[in-house]
Amino acid sequence: MPVLGEAVYRLYERRLENGLRGGALPRHVGVILDGNRRWARARGLGSVAEGHRHGAEKIHELLDWCHDLGIPYVTLWMLSTENLGRDSRELDDLVEIIAGTIHRIAHDPRNRARGVRITAVGALDILPDPLRRALKEAEEVTAGGEHELHVQVAVAYGGRQEIADALRGLLEEQLAHGRSLEEVIAGLTPDAIAGHLYTSGTPDPDLIIRTSGEIRLSGFLLWQSAHSEFYFCDAFWPEFRRTDFLRALRDFGMRQRRYGR
Fold first, then answer.
1. Which of 32, 60, 203, 233 has the maximal Cβ count within 10 Å?
2. pTM recorded for the entire structure
3. pLDDT tens across 84-99, in order?
4. How many angstroms separate the most distant Cα atoms in the chain?
């Protein structure tokens, strides 16, 4: 970008950020990191893995932006259950990239100083062993102390599967306590089901962002997004800029949230 263009861009970015001051910011942002493969193909890169690598670098920038703005919860959809059915070579590359990204987040001295906490959500038992071990290690390393930023990593994640697993967990719990069928049915309340979701204990997302121009959730946080605001951005994830993030936050601040009322 030419020097003049860069200066204009930074001026616009500061103007966006100044406009957020004193306004409503989301407490929890969920992000569908979409478009890595298409970005790589559009640029004629050697493999789609290059798109995933560039996308992984963008995650570190996003966490910086969230920390700087005081947003305490971020959920990143990094691997869906459908992704596990991809070509084995691409999946191996993706698993390696995700594991490396999680390790870097957990061990980055700046993140340690900020109190970043990592938790994994999804059907973790079906993950390849290297990724499952990397996630467990990151959770353990970041578990202690005060936390300014809680990063949920959604891997082997699907919204329908999460709800099915939550219902199964609730029913098993009720049966283990000797509840009758009538008592089990009476206990099927939204709060009871929510307590068995992968994300139990984390506030529902206020804002969900999806990159790459796709205008759908594809199963991301189906239960938790009942009252979320959505923002769809045309940029592929590797080219998502701080300006795009600030625009999403500006759009969120302009909406009147009704929570179904």
1. 32
2. 0.93
3. 887 788 899 999 999 9
4. 72
The CA angle 20-119-253, to the nearest 5 degrees, is 15
**Residue 186: which domain range?**
159-197
In a domain, 210, yes or no: yes
The whole-angstrom separation of Cα 55 and Cα 34 is: 9
Q: pLDDT tens, 163-181? A: 999 999 999 999 999 999 8
18 within domain boundaries? no
Do 105 and 224 lie in one domain? The reply is yes
Q: What is the average pLDDT score of the chain?
A: 93
Q: Is 111 helix (H, G, I), strand (E, B) or coil?
A: helix
- Number of structural domains, the chain? 2
Q: Active-site residue numbers?
A: 34, 83
pLDDT number for residue 8: 84
Is 121 in the same domain as 32? Answer: yes
Report CA-CA distances (Å) from 77 to 34, 167, 203: 9, 22, 16
The reply to whether 121 and 183 lie within a common domain is no
